[in-house]
Write a structure and sequence with these properties.
The protein is an alpha/beta fold and about 500 residues long. The protein folds into two domains: about 400 residues, no CATH class; about 90 residues, STAS domain (Transcription Regulator spoIIAA). It has 23 helices and six strands.
């Protein structure tokens, strides 16, 4: 057997570590999303047993992710838990279609600033929302209201012993996770998030603290395949924006995670289209079961690599352990205090905010840093889908503006024609600047317009330059002499390829 599975020992040990990391995160994401805790475990099980078996990224682990918490909560609030399965199902089918059509690799072309901004905005909303949950209070609906209401929330907490105890459990959970990394390596074999939940649960039971705990319905009790009424919601145009957001954001997060995981090990590289198909298959099944959407999760994936995993067997086994836990020990979920789960998600949200990247981007590429910040602020102010669209639009505008860089050099020797040299890329975006400079040239002098330095001249610019030349020549001066750009045989050959 060992000859067939030479890395069984390494993968077995890694699967235990990933399982211990996954349990509190699966439960925490589900509770924060406004759905039963077991639905998070179901998504984790599907991520291990289904997506884990498929080709794509061999060491990447999938399951419910904090990055989709905000979007899922918005979808559940607007359409209800019963419709969540339809949304996830159709999003999974879209992912399958994109994978089979070979679109997976194109996600690598999405601006990193937009992705970092998306994660930053999600992190801010998660932190703001889960602080309320840690205090046992209901959070406002919008991201701006969550942040604006924090001072009042803390004021209300100070006047309530129950809220203070609840907030103390959440704060203690965060403290344990942060300090756990400073303990000896042998102790750190137990994941910090799991240790924090166990300690918070023990403290709640030992002192009989009046804090809310997870509501348990049983694994089979929460599985609700979408019915005809849920499919009827597809007639509403509003739901399709949510479906597309699920598909695109889950795909982007998974494929960017795959690229990050590839940098952590020397094994087989990710096959992006096949990974997209694997994610689509997992989400399709999650939708049929009425569970949470799935993405690749960098926390679990990096834990998998760090624990010594060598093949996909580790992530499949982690799905087995999740299934056994959910089936044999559901009572354990009912003991977990919700403030502890809120603390885990506050810490996860904090890690989503790319502080170092923002600083580095501001020093090297202020425009990219601006895109990151605008994307994050838009997600907080509006919602995740529209915030990402704003970031993408801004990224496209910035790229188009930079690609249209053009330079106009005017040489006037006092006698003879004025020489004007255009170089770079002449597009309609820079047309006002070009025309302003040309129209300021003396009307009574001949002009030579040299376009040989242009790499690109679009139709709008060509037409405008021809019109300017006609107007300048109509004043009685010599016709404007235009020297067209020449394409070398090599450039023509490259263009043909």
């Amino acid at each position: 057997m060992l000859s067939k599975f030479p890395y069984l020992r390494q993968d077995f040990l890694a699967s235990i570590v990933v399982f211990l990391v996954a349990v509190p995160l699966c439960v925490g994401v589900a509770v924060a999303s406004g759905v039963p805790a077991e639905l998070g475990l179901i998504t984790g099980i599907v991520g291990g047993l289904v997506t884990g078996l498929m080709r794509g990224s061999s060491l990447q682990v999938s399951g419910p992710a904090a990055g989709l918490t905000v979007l899922v909560f918005e979808a559940v609030s607007e359409f209800g838990v019963a419709t969540l399965g339809v949304i996830v199902l159709i999003a999974g089918l879209l992912q399958l279609a994109m994978g089979f059509l070979g679109i997976g690799r194109w996600f690598r072309a999405i601006s990193v600033s937009v992705v970092e901004g998306m994660l930053c905005g999600i992190g801010l909303v998660i932190i703001a929302g889960q602080v309320y949950a840690a205090a046992g209070l209901k959070a406002p609906e919008s991201g701006l209201d969550k942040i604006a209401g924090l001072p009042g929330m803390f004021a209300d907490t100070l006047g309530s012993t129950r809220a203070l105890m609840s907030l103390a459990i959440g704060a203690g959970t965060i403290a344990v996770i942060v300090l756990w990394k400073k303990l000896p390596k042998a102790v750190q074999t137990v994941p910090g998030a799991l240790a924090a939940v166990v300690l918070a649960t023990a403290a709640t039971l030992a002192f009989s603290l009046p804090v809310a705990t997870v509501q348990v319905e049983g694994l089979l009790g929460v599985i609700q395949p979408p019915g005809a009424e849920a499919f009827g919601e597809l007639a509403s145009p509003a739901i399709w924006g949510t479906i597309i957001a699920f598909a695109l954001i889950a795909s982007a997060e998974s494929l960017f995670s795959a690229a990050a995981v590839d940098r952590l090990h020397n094994g087989p590289r990710t096959e992006y289209n096949k990974e997209m198909i694997a994610q689509g298959a997992g989400n399709t099944l999650c939708g049929l079961l009425g569970a949470l959407p799935m993405t690749a999760v960098i926390v679990r994936s990096s834990a998998n690599v760090a624990a010594g995993a060598r093949t996909k067997a580790s992530r499949v086994l982690h799905g087995v352990w999740l299934l056994l836990f959910a089936a044999a020990m559901p009572w354990a979920l009912a003991l977990i205090p919700i403030p502890a789960l809120a603390g885990i998600l506050v810490h996860a949200g904090w890690k989503l905010i790319p502080f170092r990247q923002i600083t580095a981007l501001w020093r090297a590429h202020k425009g990219e840093a601006l895109i990151l910040v605008v994307t994050a602020v838009s997600i907080v102010a509006v919602n995740m889908f529209e915030g990402v669209l704003i970031g993408l639009a801004l990224s496209v505008v910035k790229t188009a503006w930079e690609a249209s860089h053009v330079r106009l050099d005017v040489i006037d020797k006092g006698a003879g024609p004025i020489q004007a040299y255009l170089s770079g890329n002449a597009t309609f975006l820079r047309l006002p600047k070009i025309l302003d400079s040309l129209e300021n040239l003396p009307q009574d002098r001949p002009v030579e317009l040299d376009l040989k330095g242009l790499h690109h001249l679009d139709h709008a610019c060509r037409t405008a330059l021809e019109s300017w030349a006609e107007r300048h020549s109509a004043t009685g001066t010599e016709p404007v002499k235009v020297m067209e750009p020449e394409e070398s045989p090599q450039s023509e050959k490259v263009a043909a390829v």
